[in-house]
Structures are given as C-alpha cells and as structure tokens.
Amino acid sequence: MTASPQSGQSGRSATAEKAEPRWERRFRAPRHTLPAWAKSNPQRCVFVSDLPGAAQVFCWDRDTSRLRQVTHVAGGSRDSAVEASGEAVWWFRDGGGDELGVWMRQPFHGGPDEPVSPELAPGWQAGLAMGLDGHALIGLSTPEGTAVHLLRPDGTAPVVYRHEEAAMAVDLSRGVDLLAILHTEDGDLWHPALRVLRPDGSTVRDIGEPGEPLEAVGFAPVRGDTRLLLRELRGDSWEPLIVDAATGERFPITLGLPGEVDADWYQDGSGLLVRQNFQAHSLLYRYDLAGGRLTPLDVPRGTVEYARTRPDGGIWYIWSSTERPPTFATVGEPSGFVLPGLRAPASTPTRERWVDGPGGPVPALVNLPAGARAPHPAVFLLHGGPDEQDRDAFDPEAAGWLDHGFAVVRVNYRGSSGYGEKWAQALRARVGHTELADVAAVRALLVSEGVLDPDRLVLAGASWGGYLTLLGLGTQPDLWAAGVATAPVADSVVAYEDERDDVKALDRTLFGGTPEEVPERYADSSPMTYATAVRAPVLITAGRNDPRCPPRQIGTYTDALSAAGAAFDVHWHDDGHSSTVTQERVDAFRRALSFVLDHLAPRPSS
C-alpha cells in the first residue's frame, strides 16, 4: 500500500479516533523508528511504523515522497534494513513471536519476498551490518551457538566466525576488507571481546585485553578508511576510542561529559556525533576530530532516542519528553517526512528527584496527576534491561496512569545505565534485591513527604521490570497494594532451562554460573522462592511464544500462588516477549487499569 492521510489504523476513521479517551489516543497515535537510508543512495529509506495497527516495515523514497508498506505480518514485523544500493529492503521474518527466523528481501518498489540467501538457516538475530557492493555481515544464533556470515553479491553466505558462546556481527569496512565482531568466548556477556576479521574469516587482531570493557560502534563510513570507533570504560565513565583496525594504533578521546555518552561518525569521517544522557535528559554535540573541539547542537530539553548524521552533514533524530510525544526532527535541511495519522495528546512534565539510598543517591522521575490533591495513589513503573534507564521521554502507559489520577514514579535503581559503571554493575551483589532496596527508599521518602498514599501503591513493570515486580511483591509484601507484571521471569531456575542461549549467558554473568553451579544465588533472587509471602493481588501478562521469559515458568509460579491462596490473574497472548499490535497494547493497559481499580482500596474520604 501507499500510506496516505486517509489510510488510518486498520480502517478506523479519524472521527472515531478523536472520540476516544486521551489515554487511548496516545497508544493509537502511530509511532515510527528513525529512517535508515541506503549508503550509496541516501534518498531511499526504510523504517518501521505501527501505522497499520501493528509494527510493519515501510520504505520511503524521498525523491517522490512516496511511502510504501513492505510487510503485512499479522503480529507485526520489527526489524528492517536497506541495501546500500537502495534496490531492496530487508525484513526479518520470525516464527510467530519466538524470534527465530530468517532475513527476507523485497525489491524497493515492490515485488516478491525471498530469503536473502538460501544458505542461511533460521536463527535468532545476532547483529546485521549492510556493506557496499552487495555485501552484508549477518549474525544468527541457535541453541548450538552463534554463526556470523558474510553475504556476497552472488548470494552465498560463508561462515566467517562460529562459537558455542554468544557473538554479534558489528560492522564491515566500506572496502569490505575488514569485519568487526563481538564475542563472549570467555563467557562474560557483560563485557564481550572485540575481534577484527578478514573476509575469509582469519583474524586480523583482537582489540583489547580479555575482560577489558570496550563497546564497538562501527567503521568510519569512508572507503579505504580502517578506523574503528569504540567506547572505552575509563574509571567510572565511557569515552570514545578510535582504533586503526589495520595497525592496532589507538586514539583515545576524552570528552569529560558526565552521565552516559555515546558517539557515532559523521559521514565524511571528520567528526563524531556525540549524545549525552545526563540527569534523565539528552544533549547532542559535534566533536571535530582535527581540532578536538566539542560544539553543542541546539535540541529541545527532553530525550533524543535515536540520532544519525546525514551525508550532507545534517542530523536526523527522534525526540520526545514525558510531556510531548515523539517528533522526527532535524539539524540542517528538513527531512520532508510526513507520517499520516493523529498525533498523541500531550501529558504532564516530570521532575527528577534524588533520594538517599542504601548504595548512594537514587535518581527517580516523579510525575503527579494534574489537579489532584495529595497523597496520591501511585504506580511505580520499573524499567527493563536491567541496564536500561528511565528518562524524560514520552510513554503512553505512564501518561495513561496519570490521566486516571495516579502519580507515576520511575526509579533508576542500581543496575540502570546513565549514572556510571559502578552504579550499573552494583546489582550483581544481590540480583533483584539491590534494585528493590532503591525502589523502597524512593517509596519511603515520597510517603514521608505526604506525596503518596502508602496504602494505594502499585508495583508494575515489563521484562526485567516484571521480574522485579514479582520479586518485590514477595520480599516487600507490606509495601505494595497490587502488582502488574508483564513478560516477567517468575521462576529463575525453570526460566533458565527454557530460555534462549544468549539470555542464559546473561544469567550466568549476573549470577556467576548456572543454577547447578550456584543454586543458592538463583534461589535467593527468584520470585518463586517468595511466592508464599505474596499478599497483594497481581496481574501477570505473558506470551506463549516468549523465548526470553518462557511460558512454563509462569505456570510453576502461579501454581505456587494458588497453593498459597494468593489473588492473581493471568492473561496469555500469542506473541513473544512483547507485542507490536496496537489493539493488544490498548487492551493490556485497559486490563491493567481495571485490575488495579478493582483491587485498590478507594481513597479515604477527607
């Protein structure tokens, strides 16, 4: 299809959309990723949007302003790329939410789908880098390990790296003479090692010492340039590092910016686009490599979700704040991009609080419902990861709770990124309990100040946040009146048995071994251990095809809740770890809201 202002979501009219409550309109307002462009034909772009009612891949021809829907997958399609020539779009076809699939190819202007190579068997994604002249570096993992393939113009895809431990395809040099991969041959998923290969799979060099904290970004986007951009941990902060992959020579860059810093190349290789996430907000800079000058760029206060430099020197980025919905913005020439559909209504601004915690000051974002009097009922929304972070960014779920009179508290507990490496690594001392101690400290302060009603507080989250929700209900039963856990780990031992291999590797890194090797650590951090102590009603939402937080362990946990006489409800969907279907997201929030209102005590009369 060609997207147009009349296309709507699944045939719904603009009149019907405007009649919906504000919270629902925020979920239904179409979202999209930052368009990626073909390296040799930058007017041809690809992106993912839920405009049709589920995430689908679209292509965008800037010369004609035409948007075309590439995929029509019932459960949505999340991942896309565009060939360097701009002749074809790639999308990842998985098997009904289990994330095991193959890369497909479709001509840019339409045509049949076909696998990018007949030699590639289904696998879980482990990195993708599009190269020039018909090349691509493709990582795929299976229960047997990870293989990285070099796709050639003739459609062959020989293996250039294989190992039983997790690995990741990172990038190809523009001359396709150097390949970069990350690997965890030593079993440390937290700090994978970086290796540079030749196209025949032989090793050029390993960059860094074993266990040295390095993160790879990519090669300079100039043919013949062998510089590779990385991030290097120095002290408690990450800084850019450029390494000549051909010679091994290092060129460290010291920016001295507080918070979380990442960088990417300008397209002529003359500078770096630097993004700083500090105290829940984002700033952008240009760093000039020749002169060492750092120049701030003019962006609004809020969060830059994604940013890329353009061949003309401009910048495309996605920006939002807790108050304002996402916007596709530019530095330099306007993009000309217009996505049909209604825009999400605004919400309320956030305030960052710092609270004394057991491991140091704990940062938290606090939103209060407009026009309501304290003390407020509240939802503590716990982020996933565990190494993600909550920022001043738009979230329809947070805004929906605010619309219904709840305060929303988001805690960047120990384990979160953005506050230094020591903060991010601190959760490993006692997984789950460390994070929840910080959440409890924030709760205690806001209750003591009279901001929150201690008898009407809800613990909620998805993925790692869902895991913390279940663990918190069992280990802090006096603190929470209800829980909403989405795609959680509920039984750490059973989850380990069934989850995909890269998630097992993360568990081994966090806990220091397998459940057989360190059973006491898994038991200490498993919600299953504390199921009999749960007193608050809990709503659990899970996917039947989730390979990260698999379904069997949900059953063992709810069996324990049943035996203990706890109140709970379980909703199953047919997707994987999360759903891109707009109606499912709307239904999920409506279900959570109804559950909480049914079980939360009414506000006491004054």
pLDDT averaged residue by residue: 92
User: Radius of gyration in whole Å, from Cα?
Assistant: 24 Å
Count of separate DSSP helical elements: 11
Strand content: 35-45%
The end-to-end distance, rounded to whole angstroms, is: 57 Å
Q: What coarse outline follows from CA principal-axis ratios?
A: globular
- Class from secondary-structure proportions: alpha+beta
Parts with pLDDT < 50 across at least 5 consecutive residues:
1-10
Oligomeric state of shown chains: single chain
| Counted beta strands | 35
Q: Give the % helix.
A: 10-25%
SSE arrangement:
Layout: H1 14-19, H2 22-28, E1 36-38, E2 41-49, E3 56-61, E4 66-69, E5 80-82, E6 88-94, E7 100-107, E8 114-115, E9 123-130, E10 136-142, E11 145-151, E12 159-163, E13 167-172, E14 179-183, E15 193-197, E16 203-207, E17 214-219, E18 227-234, E19 237-244, E20 250-252, E21 260-265, E22 271-278, E23 281-288, E24 293-296, E25 303-309, E26 315-320, E27 327-331, E28 351-357, E29 360-367, E30 376-382, H3 396-403, E31 407-411, H4 421-425, H5 433-448, E32 452-462, H6 464-475, E33 482-486, H7 492-498, H8 501-511, H9 519-525, E34 538-543, H10 552-564, E35 568-573, H11 582-599
Provide structural commentary.
It is a single chain. By secondary structure, the protein is of the alpha+beta class. Helices cover 18% and strands 35% of the residues. It contains eleven helices and 35 strands. The strands form seven sheets. Strands 5, 6, 7, 8, 9, 10, 11 and 12 form an eight-stranded antiparallel sheet that branches. Strands 28-29-31-30-32-33-34-35 form an eight-stranded mixed sheet, with helices on both faces. Strands 1-2-3-4 form a four-stranded antiparallel sheet, with no helix packed on it. Strand 1 and strand 2 form a beta hairpin. Helix 2 runs antiparallel to helix 3. It starts with 13 loop residues before the first helix and ends in a 7-residue tail after the last helix. The model is unreliable at 1-10 (pLDDT under 50).
